[in-house]
Amino acid sequence: MTRRGWLLFGALGVIWGLPYFMIKVAVRELHPAFLVFVRTGGGAAVLLPLAAARGELAPALRRWRPVLVFAAVEIGVPWFLLFSAETRVSSSLSALLIATVPLFAALVAWVTRSERLDARRLGGLAVGFGGVAVLVGFDVGRSDVLATVSLGAVGLGYALGPWVVARRLSDLPSLGVVALSLAACTAAYAAPAALEVPARTPSAPVLASVVGLTAACTVVAFVALFALVAEVGAMRATVITYVNPAVAVLVGVAALGEPFGLASGAGFALILAGCVLATRPAPGAPALVAPPVAEP
User: Taking the model in full, what pTM does it have?
Assistant: First the structure.
């Protein structure tokens, strides 16, 4: 990989490891629906003109139906569920559970008959979801089970999004698809957000987190992702999904004092091992995992 590729990889690994911490801070004072509206609206405000200037918005508009499906499963529903879950569980645990995205991607590929699952891949799924069981049994038992289920739905949504892109939107410019998706989600959350406008000005840490989520983790992250995919290819870019949770855990422990014990480490290790086994293609076969599109 080139030096530029390594720089983009490192930058994106850090940028997409930070949202969990920022979300945890922001939802202390902001309702999840309002936070989704602000984040998608800010991203759309910057990316829509950029996509239009590049001529990448019109093709996405012509394919608006699958774009709306993508927007719902990759951004609109997962972000609300993630933000809601972080009102009840730690940012570190959220990141560890969402590290299951490649496992869900393997399941989606199997259910849709896009790929066959051999013994090695099935073993990887068993190992990976065994890691989830370790986390749930030792860490989530003291938290909110509903939040855990919500995070599982987030992982499934993040796996379905790239699948929709691969089947219906692969010939369209990525920037146009993402910009239009953010705009659609902004419109969808306008009414719920209007009911949840905070009564007082949020504190400085919350405002800083919202700016970070919007500017760095949405606008800058998308631009960096497109550059990374162009530099190193789509499949190499998927390694980001293994780096982000580790960064999120480090930030959660260091900045928020969140616990990270033996069970957390063991669960994370099992999830990563399962992801590698479940998504590694057989010789001559395509990989199961599409590049991350809008995580987290």
Answer: 0.89
User: Residues 20, 95: contact at Cβ < 8 Å?
Assistant: yes
Is the link from the previous residue into 296 a cis peptide, with omega within 30 of 0? yes
Q: pLDDT tens, 127-177?
A: 888 888 887 776 665 557 888 899 999 989 988 988 898 889 989 998 999
Classify 89 in phi/psi space as left (phi over 0), alpha (psi -120 to 50) or beta.
beta
48 phi and psi angles, rounded to 5 deg:
-60, -50
Angle between helices 3-15 and 240-256 (to 10 degrees): 50
Nearest-angstrom CA–CA distance, 288 and 114: 9
Three-state DSSP class for residue 128: helix
From the number of C-beta atoms within 10 Å of its C-beta (0-12, 13-18, 19+), residue 53 rates as exposed
Domain ranges of the chain: 3-279
Two tokens at 67?
A: 């774009």
